[in-house]
Amino acid sequence: MQPRMSIRKPAAEGYKAMLALEGYINASGVPHATLNLVRLRVSQINGCAFCVRMHAAEAKEGGETDERLWSVAAWREAPFYTDEERAALALAESATRIADDPAGVPDDVWNDAADHYAEADLAALVMTIAAINAWNRINVTLRNPAASH
Where residue 135 sits, what CATH number does that domain have? Predict the structure, then answer.
């Protein structure tokens, strides 16, 4: 598959803004392992091969185990995740699949995340979910292929 275009030049200011958002997220108090799992899971849901490949590789480089990477699509049934990670993954899935529930993100999902994360970190998680959904939509639209990282 060949990419349709690169947005780096024609949307330079928007691209820089997205990178600035990533800087904020990466400087937040949310553990990088959790951020990587959220990015990977959302990218799986959205079918973004480019982002799945990139975030799996980044997670692996950050010390993530194969067991956890291979199991993230079935995190509810896998015993490899902390309660905090499970809360973040549930929030990520609900926010990504908002059309699946007339209430949007259910209160129990939100409350569980809020029980595990301080307000600033919860806000950073929300921004992470929004950002990876945006990146997925950009890469899927442009047909950016999964590439070696």
Answer: 1.20.1290.10
Amino acid at 100: D
- Nearest CA to 91 out of 104, 82, 78 is that of 104
Q: How would you write the pLDDT of the chain (149 residues) with one tens digit per residue? A: 789 999 999 999 999 999 999 999 999 999 999 999 999 999 999 999 999 999 999 999 999 999 999 999 999 999 999 999 999 999 999 999 999 998 899 999 999 999 999 999 999 999 999 999 999 999 999 999 988 55
Whether the pTM exceeds 0.90: the reply is yes
Cβ–Cβ < 8 Å for 64, 36: yes
Number of domains the chain is built from: 1
* Domain-located, residue 43: yes
Domain holding 93, by residue range, is 30-141
